[in-house]
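Student: I would love a firmer grasp of how sequence relates to backbone shape in proteins. I am handing you a single protein, as its sequence and its fold in token form. I am told such tokens are a discrete way to write the fold. I hope you can help me see how the letters and the tokens relate. Take your time, and here it is.
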Amino acid sequence: MLSGPSPQRNILRSTTRGAPTEAQPGLRPEDHLDSGNSSFPAVGIDSNDDLHVIWCDQTPGPSDIYYKRSSDGGSTWTTSRRITWTSGSSEKSALAVDSSDALHVVWSDYQVGNPEIYYMRSTDGGSTWSVARRMTWTSGNSSRPAIAVDSSDTLHVVWNDWTLPARKSITGTAWTEERPGARSKG
């Protein structure tokens, strides 16, 4: 077990397209939960330039996913909101924002024993979240998901897995399985 203070999430921004500039303040200790270990932060930006941040935090015990939003470039933040409430440990989260500003979150969760991939979304800027949807039912470990949205608003999710399939895509509400090495017909 690590001793000492919990790692702090920090956000830096550049208004000069990455050229050297003074660091802007990130999330301050009073902005987030600090009694547990915080890890795996992810950030998304919507069409209003609002920042949306998720991370895993062990403050209540086993790790759960938390969410914050900033509407002023990171100067101030909403109160931290716990968005997962599982019996297991919710870890290794990832975030994507689509063209309708819907927020999409995937993560690994240990509520069924071995880690499986789960998904949820918010269509109102993080105020409310859908019910978590389990995406994998494997005998092996499914972990470290990543999510991206293409120009057609199709979500693409990949993850480490010791069983197949290892990728799913969603158009609307239907997920499709794609096996590694499979080729699409053009």
Notes: The chain is about 0% helix and 40% strand. The two ends are 51 Å apart (CA to CA).
